[in-house]
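Example (one chain per record):
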Amino acid sequence: MTGGIMENEYEIFMGALLKATALIAPEFFDLQVASTDATIYRERVYCYELYHQLRQTLPIGFPFTLQGEIDKRNHPIISKACGAIKPDLLVHRPGDMENSNLVVVEVKSVTNVSQLKKDFKTLRCMTSLENGYFRGISVLFGQNNDDPYNKAARLYKKHCADATERIHLFFHKLPRNPIERYIEEQQTP
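Predicted structure:
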């Protein structure tokens, strides 16, 4: 597939991702802890619901497959370049590396923002491989003050400054709302 076709497929995926994140209910966003009034963010719970909602919103006939947590430890190409990684979600054509890798997605909660550096490393590697993934997406979710989001933005600027065309950072601050893309404000001279 050419870059234009991949861009079109990416836009279709992004439309589905926006719809899917707007469908994530509070119980999958912020898990109630038994026998208490406390709640806790659980990445797996969020990712499984995101996967489910994406499966429901991707159009019939979409030419890529959505899969979760594929261990790339023994992959003949990816493991040599990127190490033993297991991305949260992949949108690709399994078994093919040529023009068949659309999106790699990594997810973190606001309580684990310090782990974004590892996710950015994974996204950078997987999107820079020959016939690698067309785009990388990092999603930070959770209700909190702005500090985790500011920290995420700083980490993104530091670790993805030269890759902002292929790696995108999104914030999902509230359940039943779509994600919002972080775009660095342009400084005027």
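Caption: The first strand starts at residue 31 and ends at 32.
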